[in-house]
Amino acid sequence: MSTFSKAITLILLTLFLSACNKGKKIPTLNFPSTDLSTENMIPKPLEAIATNEGFSLDQYTAISVSEKSDDLLDLIWFLSEKIKAKTNLDIVLADSETPQKGTVIYIEKTDALKQKGAEAYLLSITRDSLILSSSQASGIFRGMQTIRQIIPDNSNDTITTYKTWPIPTGEINDKPQFEYRGSMLDVARHFFSVEDVKKYIDLLAYYKYNILHLHLSDDQGWRIEIKSWPLLTKIGGSTEVGGEQGGFYTQEEYIDLVNYAARRHIMIVPEIDMPGHTNAASVSYPILNGNGIPPKLYEGTEVGKSTLDTRKDEVYTFIDDVVREISAITPGPYFHIGGDESHVTKKEDYIYFVERVQEIVRKHGKRMIGWDEIATANIDSNSISQFWASKENAHLAIEKNMKIILSPAKKAYLDMKYDTESKYGLSWSGYIPVDTAYIWTPEAYEKIPLKNIIGIEAPLWSETISNMDELEYLAFPRAIGYAELGWSIKENRNWEDYKKRLANQAPFLKRMKVKYYPSSLVKWNE
Ligand code: ACM
After folding, report:
1. If you measure from the C-alpha of residue 229 to the centroid of ligand 1, how many angstroms do you get, rounded to a whole number?
2. What does the pLDDT look like over 368-420, one tens digit per residue?
3. Which spans in 292-346 are helix H?
4. 494 φψ region: left (φ > 0), alpha (ψ -120 to 50), beta (else)
5. Residue with the nearest Cα to atom 3 of ligand 1?
C-alpha cells in the first residue's frame, strides 16, 4: 500500500476512534517484548516485520469495518466467532454511538492493494490498533486466518486485572505464490458425510487452502444426485469399499457444501472420473458399459477394469446431462473429468473420448481438468493437467502450453503411509513421512517450468479410511505442509523452522479435535 493510502487509513481510523472514544479510555498496556516475525504462522507469510510491542486483545477490544457491506459484515462475524472459540471473548462491532474504550481491530477493503492480487493482504499492528486491509473479501479472509494464528493460545493474566491476549506488533505483507492450493477428498471409495467434509473444509481454510476437489465417482460408488439419471445414486451409490453402506449427496447437500466452502473462500472442484473408474455408473445403467462384461456392484480396490463405451452416442448424452447438472450448481470455473488409469479403453478410443468430453465441459461453461493422462489427447491449452504419476505426460501438457496442477504421488499423496508402522494408507508410491512431504520444491519439480504450474494439490484417496479419525490421521499433519508449499515462496521455506511452527499447531489441532498423526520427527507442543 502506498504511504498516501496508509496515511488516509490512519486518519480515518483516528477520526473514527475519537468519535468512539467519548467514554473513559483504558490505558495502553506494556507487554514484554514479542517478535511478530517468529510467530507460529503457517503458511509462512511473504514478509513480517516486528516492532516488538504488544496489541492487547481483551474484553475492551472492538471490531470495525471500512464499509458495512454484507461480505465484510459476514467476515467480521466469522472472525468474532473464531476469537470467541479461542479466547471466550465477545468482540463487539464498534460504532460511533457506543463509546469505545480499548483496542480496535479495523477491517478495510481498499483498492490500494488491487495490483497485488485478490488474496493479498496487509496486517498493520500497533499497540492500539490492528488493521487488516485487502482489495477483496478473499484477501481479508486469508488475513483473518493469520490473525487467528497470532492470537496466543493462553491469556496473560498477570499484567492487568483482566485477561489479555497480547498480539505482537509489526507489519505483515502477504500473498500466495500459487493461485491453486488444493486438497482432494475421495468420497467414492468410502463415503464421507456433509458434516465430515465441512470439518475438513474448516481445517483447510485455517491454512489458507482455496480449493477442495471432490472425487465424486469411482468403480465402488457414485456420490452425487443426477436428477436425469436417478439410478446412479440409487444403485451406484449403495456400496463402498469393504461392503459398507455407501451414500451420496443430494444436489441440495452439494449446494450446502459449495456455500459452506465459499464462505471460507474455498472453491469446490467436482470430479466425475471417466472413461475408466466407471463401474458404479455402468451397474446403474448397463447401456454405458464398454468392457463387454455384465457389470456388478464392486467393493474391492483393484483399478483399471472398467470403461464407458466411448463410441456410443448415448454415453455422450449421459455425460452431457451429468456435466450440465453439476456445472449448474458449481460456481467455480473447473470441472474435473478424471481420465486416469483407463487401462481397458483402447488408446484411440481414449483420445476420441477426452476430446469429445472437453467440448461438453466447455459447452457448459467450465474449464476441464483431468489427471495427467489427458495430455495424451489432442486437447487445448485451456484445459489443465493434474500431474500424479507420469513425467512424460507432464511434458506433453507443457508442449500443449497447458497449466499443470502438481500432485506427484511420491510427494503429495496424503493416502501414502508415513512409514511401515502406519495404521492406514497405501505404499505403492513409497512412504511419505512428514519431512519428505515438506522437503521438495514444487517450483522446480521434474523440470516443469514455473509458468506452467498453476499450483499444488494434495489428494486423499480413501481405500483404507472410512471415518473422520482415519481421515485426520492421514491428512494431518501433512496437509499443513502442503499449504505452505502452495502459499509461501521457496526462500521462506525451511524444514527446521517449519518443524517448530508445526509443533505449535498442536493446541489448535487439539481444540479442533483433530486426531493427527503425532510424528516423532516433531516435538509437539502438547
Ligand atoms: C490416481 O491416483 N489414479 C490419479
Report:
1. 26
2. 999 999 999 999 999 999 999 999 999 999 999 999 999 999 999 999 999 99
3. 313-328
4. beta
5. 340
pTM of the model: 0.96
7 HSE (CA, 13 A, CB side): 3
Grid cell 488516509 is found at 8
Give the number of the atom of ligand 1 that is nearest the alpha carbon of residue 277. Answer: 3
Spatial distance between the Cα atoms of 435 and 451, rounded to a whole number of angstroms? 26
Distance, CA of 217 to CA of 221 (rounded, Å) = 6
> Do residues 231 and 285 lie in contact, with contact meaning Cβ atoms separated by under 8 Å?
yes
Task: Clarify whether 341 is annotated catalytic.
Answer: yes
Query: Ligand 1 test: best mutation among 274, 371, 414, most atoms within 8 Å of CB?
Result: 371
Number of alpha carbons in the 13 Å side-chain half-sphere of residue 438: 26
Distance CA 212, CA 413 (A): 15
Instruction: Return the ligand 1 atom nearest residue 407 CA.
Output: 4
Q: What is the whole-number distance in angstroms between the Cα of residue 394 and the centre of ligand 1?
A: 14
- CA pair distance 383, 144, nearest whole angstrom: 33
62-76 pLDDT, tens digit per residue, is 999 999 999 999 999
Tell me which residue has cell 492421514: 474
Q: How far is the CA of 373 from the centre of ligand 1 (A)?
A: 10
Pairing of strands 121-125, 211-215: unpaired
Grid coordinates representing 1 are 500500500
The pick from 213, 272, 306, 388 for probing ligand 1's pocket by mutation, whose C-beta has the most ligand atoms within 8 angstroms, reads 388
Q: For the chain, which domains are there? A: 3-174 (3.30.379.10), 180-511 (3.20.20.80)
Q: Are strands 164-174 and 211-215 parallel, antiparallel or unpaired?
A: unpaired
Is the distance from the beta carbon of residue 340 to the nearest atom of ligand 1 less than 6 Å?
A: yes
